[in-house]
Fold this protein.
Amino acid sequence: QSALTQPASVSGSPGQSITISCTGTSSDVGGYNYVSWYQQHPGKAPKLMIYDVSKRPSGVSNRFSGSKSGNTASLTISGLQAEDEADYYCCSYAGSSAVVFGGGTKLTVL
Amino acid sequence: EVQLVESGGGLVQPGGSLRLSCAASGFTFSSYAMHWVRQAPGKGLEYVSAISSNGGSTYYANSVKGRFTISRDNSKNTLYLQMGSLRAEDTAVYYCARVGRYSKVLDYWGQGTLVTVSS
């Protein structure tokens, strides 16, 4: 149950696009199309932004998109806005009802 | 509206026990698997435990296996986490989360309850 690998931090200017990667193994990211992404503001609970690799829950901006290739998933945020500044976590199903999370990426909007 | 409300957190001494509860509303609780996820101060999210919709199957992270027990009471729409032999490294905010009906996604989360293990 090793954590998925994410960059510790990324940054971008308002209006730009950024991509956060999430690397796992064939036992998690590569083995299932059950990758999700969560946004977490300080002191708040995680909020679901992307599920099943690329699906957006109702109410989530279409500026957020997800993809996967092999053992690596990615979250792209386009048209960066100040309110996007937060921590982002990827999560993958890992079999036997277990999930595994990435270490988290701090997004700074410059 | 789906709501998950955790309670039961607090300060406990190393080696002690604590039971967390998660009260669910706004959906048919008995139809959904549930998870506990924790977050140590300043750290990332960590899977703790999962339980099937009828409570018949339970799963644990290696870090808590043998010390924590997950359970549910579908008649009370409540999820539990019985924590024992607590260690300093169990200090965290504990979240309950619902597993999506047709996916493995944790689609709704509670606000969390803080557990502090310290003498």
User: Anything to note?
Assistant: The longest strand of chain B covers residues 18-25.
